[in-house]
């Protein structure tokens, strides 16, 4: 995985459930000042229109014509076709959206689309041929998987979907797929909020409030935060062994908002690893996963356009 070449920048866009973030990425991973707009709550066509407006504004602001556009978004993504195959409840009416077909002709630029966790993995991967799992803890839970230096998506584009792993503790059908007992049901933002609501009987209060209560010594909040970090850390340790990983990188909105979760994850990970691996496999907490996502999808555009130029520089 290489960074963008000197010269023409890449337009990088991260389509999230609440925000659409974007920036020009120049040279070797130089992410410019990121702008953002709220993601339309209606989903579907309004989100696509907002993405188009964000891209067009960045193209117009660039001193030179960009070499391409990279879109990172939640959901199961067929990167070859630029289609969102399936999406959870984060973005309404998003499944089946043909992003490349909708944007590429009007822009006249190659468009690369991938899952946001895959983009995160591309953004934190090193050019050392190593293997890593890049985990994003947000409203939901997901990961991108790099094996021997190559991003691995799988035949069904679900490689790295750790949300549906069995968890030791989970209450209710809170995974995005609607089934109980999954890791997302306890170790994601939505899982933390709902587990806390279940224990208190007070209804959902938001991850931020749970974090504040945790810091003030509230025992219920402590139980929830500790359970989330321990469940995720233990699961990641098992994956590190099974996949023979060199690194595990954890980031996302929940880690940014509740750093204590990251600390618990790292502690549980270290203690769950077999002693023979504790010096060789490391877990890192990403300080700025949002920028890493933009950097990663820009890397993908640069690599794709350099490897597979089509007519007028389009990647296919």
Automatic annotation (TrEMBL):
Top-level taxon of the source organism: Bacteria
- InterPro entries associated with the record: ATPase_NBD, ROK
Pfam families attached to this UniProt entry: ROK
Q: Name the PANTHER family on file.
A: GLUCOKINASE (PTHR18964:SF173), ROK (REPRESSOR, ORF, KINASE) FAMILY (PTHR18964)
Q: Which family does it belong to?
A: Belongs to the ROK (NagC/XylR) family.
Q: What is this protein called?
A: ROK family protein
